Amino acid sequence: MVRPMTPEDRETVLEIIRSTEMFTPDEVAVARELIDIYLDRPDQRDYRLAVVENGQGSIAGYLAYGPTPMTAGTYDLYWIAVAPDQQGLGYGRELAGWLEKKVAEEGGRMVLAETSSQPRYEPTRRFYAGLGYKEISRIPDFYKPGDDRITFVKHII
């Protein structure tokens, strides 16, 4: 089951982010900041967060997304993470499907997701490709020398 994130989910979601070992300490800090903005400022419209629960009612993963500023119907998928012991069970796909449905309901037309070219992100790139996202751009050395930014897109309409 996918549902909006609540304040009670905060620590569990942060532990999922840390436990994946995919994110640097700076990235974890940014994720924490985004979570706090979402939870502390319900009037903001930039960030939307959701969690997916497993069959036992525990949080298995989370998703952060929002409309891309100054665009018509474009959304950014900012973060998606599934607990290591829950990976490969379909929770990431469930979150992505939920996001795509929400975007369609809001009249959105595309979702963008960006990731790193580093080898450890190969499963992430395969995940996006497996969901029908297409690589549309690559900026060499964006994050640091030897670490390109790869952008994927999926058209919803």
Question: Care to describe what's here?
Answer:
With 157 residues, the chain is α+β, with helices and mostly antiparallel strands. It has one domain: Gcn5-related N-acetyltransferase (GNAT) (Aminopeptidase). Helix content is 32%, strand content 34%. The chain contains four helices and seven strands, in the order βααβββαβαββ. It has a seven-stranded mixed β-sheet with strand order 1-2-3-4-5-7-6, with helices on both faces. A hairpin with a 6-residue loop joins β3 and β4 (74-82). α1 packs antiparallel against α2. It is globular. The mean pLDDT is 96.
Compact overview of the structure:
The protein has 4 helices and 7 strands; from the N terminus they run E-H-H-E-E-E-H-E-H-E-E. With 157 residues, it is α+β, with helices and mostly antiparallel strands.
